[in-house]
Specification:
CATH architecture of chain B: Orthogonal Bundle
Number of domains of chain B: 1
Order of helices and strands of chain A: HHHHEEHHHHHHHHH
Structural class of chain B: mainly alpha
Strand order of the largest sheet of chain A: 1-2
Helix content of chain A: over 70%
Shape of chain A: globular
Largest sheet of chain A: 2 strands, antiparallel
Oligomer: heterodimer
Radius of gyration of chain B: 22 Å
Strand content of chain A: under 5%
Largest interface: A-B, 52 and 41 residues
Number of strands of chain A: 2
Number of strands of chain B: 0
Radius of gyration of chain A: 24 Å
Distance between the termini of chain B: 22 Å
CATH class of chain B: Mainly Alpha
Number of domains of chain A: 2
Helix content of chain B: over 70%
Largest sheet of chain B: none
CATH superfamily of chain B: MetI-like
CATH topology of the largest domain in chain A: MetI-like fold
Distance between the termini of chain A: 27 Å
Structural class of chain A: mainly alpha
Order of helices and strands of chain B: HHHHHHHHHHHH
């Protein structure tokens, strides 16, 4: 119950932040005179009307906030200038692709990272070169890895399609649709997995090595318990809570992690939406994406905190 | 200072040398640049030659000059935002561990919130609303990246607070300055580690923001250069990307990896 209240307060603070920041930041359109915006021609008249209706800059501050708050409770994030559509409809359309891409990559990179991490954590010696390579991969911004892969695999070798989530003109249910989607997802998925594996691997390796040093593992060795049992019952079960904590972070970052990859490969998820929102200064859309990704982060955290982390005890 | 350097292992020494070279290039970039970074009088899209080491871009900038200018802007941005976020994070951690109770709960709950919400979206949100100026980019990065420093620093400072010398100081009613004086020798190593990590992050954030086209278009960081290259339509038709895209990418990657390896704990055992 206490946790729920805490998260409700978090939620409220985020709504306040998303309301206050655009009004405080110097140079924001809400700050400038309304004639200015019209004169510069950033927006069409119609968009400007929608903009004014949504932000209502002429109302007093508290009333503005009340209006904003009510519309958010009703899941109304305003009207996108660029796409000329309600923001929540746009987000609903796109978020599926993002989830498909990021959940798949979390699944694959966790399996690979945890498996190899535990294996090398159990070994006594480790290859410094390997760790160096992994650290380097972790350090490179994801969009650079994506761009390099796009150049080499898609443009130079022409093995996989460079952009999009499906070939233009394809629709759900058409023969070969599934295969087409699969072909398009491979490259972004590969890049996301590559950028995701190192952190999980290093984490799993370190926590395994730490548990291995514990007294009860040493004791178990003296008692001649089978290695297999030591590995499974004593070590693996004890690193589960830490691994879940790590997965929690991974899931929170699911939306934002894939943004850059989506932009490079023009994958029709939230990332592309965000990019367009930024380059066309589509503020309601930007605000909507911010709110949705924050709400998503909070919900994931809440689930992990309530259900999983409370139910698992250390052996 | 020299003693600390001597103690480092081989990899870290190499990293330091590379870093020193980067810093020197950044400081003396005015002397190295053959042309001004604002000079667009060259014929566009030249191939590399002795006059233009990396050719020219589609507007007529000399790419080599832009790259060298990028050293200065990128490294400057990194150092300023790295320093500020480390400073804010550690001071807040110190304040909350010195006063404890309500202050600590309040600040750490705020930090928790900032950690849950995806910081890169927040940074983008902030800096795309703001005027396209470098200082606002730096502000956005600093404002949303101190919580992680705070979290770890708080943990460490709380640990040191339990030490005897600090306890004695508190017992004889030492004020915050006296306690800080006792803590400082212990804090300095983690401060420097954080500083380097935050510099690293700042470079990544700046590059990511530039990739989305956010920020001052006149201050050509490596990120902006990469974005400009990716925007150029015929990048992959011939080998233009070899001298347009690859040099800033290599600089960025080398810089980031050097910083990462310099503070990594995994390889000094």
């Amino acid at each position: 119950m206490k946790t729920l209240v805490k998260y409700l307060i978090y939620m409220f603070i985020i709504v306040i932040l998303s309301f206050v920041l655009p009004r405080l930041i110097p140079g924001s359109p809400l700050f400038a005179m309304s004639e200015d915006i019209n004169a510069v021609g950033i927006m069409t008249n119609e968009a400007f009307k929608a903009f004014q209706e949504y932000y209502a800059p002429e109302l007093p501050f508290l009333e503005q906030f009340w209006k904003y708050f009510k519309s958010i409770i009703n899941l109304d994030f305003g009207y996108s200038f660029y796409y000329k559509m309600p923001v929540n409809k746009l987000i609903k359309e796109r978020i599926g692709w993002t989830f498909l891409l990021s959940f798949l990559s979390i699944l694959i990179s966790s399996i690979i990272g945890i498996f190899f991490g535990i294996r090398s954590g159990l070994k006594d010696r480790e290859s410094k070169f390997m760790i160096g390579v992994l650290l380097s991969v972790q350090a490179i911004p994801t969009f650079l890895i994506a761009a390099i892969f796009q150049i080499v695999i898609a443009y130079k070798l022409r093995l996989l399609p460079p952009t999009g989530a499906y070939s233009p003109g394809m629709y759900i249910g058409q023969h070969g649709y599934f295969k087409d989607v699969l072909r398009h997802i491979l490259l972004p998925l590969l890049v996301l997995t590559i950028s995701g594996v190192p952190s999980i691997y290093i984490f799993a390796k370190n926590s395994t090595a730490n548990v291995k040093k514990e007294q009860f593992v040493k004791m178990a060795r003296y008692l001649n318990i089978k290695n297999r049992d030591i590995y499974y019952k004593y070590i693996f079960k004890n690193i589960i809570p830490e691994l879940l904590g790590r997965l929690n972070i991974q899931f929170v970052l699911a939306i934002t992690g894939s943004i850059f990859v989506e932009v490079v490969f023009s994958y029709p998820g939230l990332g592309q939406l965000l990019r367009n929102a930024i380059s066309y200064r589509d503020y309601p859309l930007l605000q909507g994406i911010l709110l949705v990704s924050c709400i998503y982060g909070l919900i994931v955290n809440l689930i992990f905190e309530l259900v999983i982390l409370n139910n698992i005890k250390r052996y | 200072m020299l003693n600390i350097i001597k103690k480092l292992n081989k990899t870290k020494k190499r990293c330091l040398i590379i870093l020193a070279i980067f810093l020197l290039i950044a400081i003396f970039s005015d002397l190295i640049m053959p042309y001004s970074h604002e000079d667009i009088s060259h014929p566009p899209l030249l191939k590399p030659s002795t006059r233009h080491f990396l050719g020219t871009d589609e507007i007529g900038h000399d790419i080599f000059s832009l790259l060298i200018y990028g050293f200065r802007i990128t490294i400057f941005t990194a150092i300023v935002s790295g320093f500020l976020s480390t400073f804010i994070g550690i001071s807040l951690a110190y304040i909350s561990s010195y006063y404890g109770k309500t202050v600590k709960t309040l600040i750490s709950e705020i930090a928790n919130l900032f950690i849950i919400i995806p910081e890169i979206v927040m940074i983008m949100f902030f800096s795309s609303f703001a005027k396209p100026k470098l200082i606002y980019t730096v502000m956005a990065i600093v404002f949303f990246s101190w919580p992680k420093v705070y979290k770890i620093a708080l943990f460490k400072i709380m640990d040191y607070m339990e030490k005897n010398k600090v306890k004695y100081t508190l017992l004889i009613k030492g004020n915050w300055y006296d306690v800080l004086k006792k803590l400082l020798p212990n804090l300095l190593p983690i401060m420097s580690t954080f500083f380097i990590l935050q510099c690293n992050k700042a470079v990544m954030y700046e590059a990511s923001l530039s990739f989305f086209g956010i920020g001052d278009p006149l201050k050509k960081t490596w990120g902006k250069l990469i974005r400009a290259a990716l925007n150029y339509d015929n990048l992959y038709y011939d080998s233009t990307f070899l001298w347009y895209l690859i040099p800033p990418v290599v600089c960025l990657i080398v810089f980031v990896i050097t910083l990462t390896l310099l503070v990594s704990e995994n390889d000094n055992s």
